[in-house]
Design a protein that fits this description.
Elements lengths: L6 E3 L4 H9 L21 H17 L6 E11 L2 E3 L5 H11 L3 E12 L5 E12 L4 H11 L18 E6 L10 H10 L6
Parallel strand pairs: 1-2
Antiparallel strand pairs: 2-3, 2-4, 4-5, 5-6
Helix pairs in contact: 3-4
């Protein structure tokens, strides 16, 4: 019986690492350090899929016998991409714009078998309807969660859930940044059984 392949997360995200721990995977995480900007006229889902695969391929160059997990999330309000705010002021602007609106989060997942070159790639969209938020709610929320490294300025796995009126998705973990239902299916195709 052969040993299971090494699994590597192509990310520096603590959120994705924590999600992997939920399904019993304690694998190394390596930051892929790529340009995460959308290409001109690129659809949001296409951007997320391209970046997830690019991250996995970047790490595959140094992890040539591993299964590489790449993931990326792109949020869109109407036709406007919403990234990580980085600052308090930018987070306030994002939440004001999303107040009472619907935002689609495209979470792409890539599983790359670096040894065989086999690629599995999927996008798991999540539609989120935000509550109407006043300035006080936004400020209190930002002081509590400080979600400056989260696309859309809302940490859904924490107090950010209170900002949401409803959401629709095939995988509740997709919104946090790594769709575990899809990942377990992909890993099973590569012979990795969870649990």
């Amino acid at each position: 019986m052969t040993s299971p392949p090494r699994i590597v997360l192509a990310s520096s995200s603590a959120y994705r690492k924590a999600l992997l721990a939920r399904i019993g995977l304690d694998c190394p995480a390596i930051s892929p350090d790529i340009d995460e900007n959308a290409l001109q006229n690129e659809a949001p889902a296409a951007t997320a899929l391209r970046l997830a695969e690019t991250k996995a391929r970047k790490i595959a160059g140094q992890e040539t016998a591993s299964l590489i997990i790449g993931s990326d999330q792109v949020a869109v309000l109407g036709n406007q991409l919403i990234g990580k705010p980085g600052t308090h002021a930018a987070a306030v602007r994002q939440l004001q714009a999303m107040s009472g609106e619907t935002v689609v989060f495209h979470t792409a997942l890539c599983l790359l078998n670096a040894a065989t070159g086999a690629v599995q790639l999927v996008n798991v969209p999540t539609t989120v309807r935000f509550r109407a938020l006043d300035t006080g709610q936004i400020e209190r929320y930002l002081r509590h969660d400080q979600p400056y490294d989260c696309a859309g300025s809302a940490r859904i796995e924490a107090l950010g859930i209170a900002l949401v009126e409803r959401l629709e998705s095939d995988d509740p973990t997709a919104l946090i940044g790594l769709p575990l239902i899809a990942l377990v299916t992909m890993l099973q195709k590569e012979g990795v059984r969870i649990p």
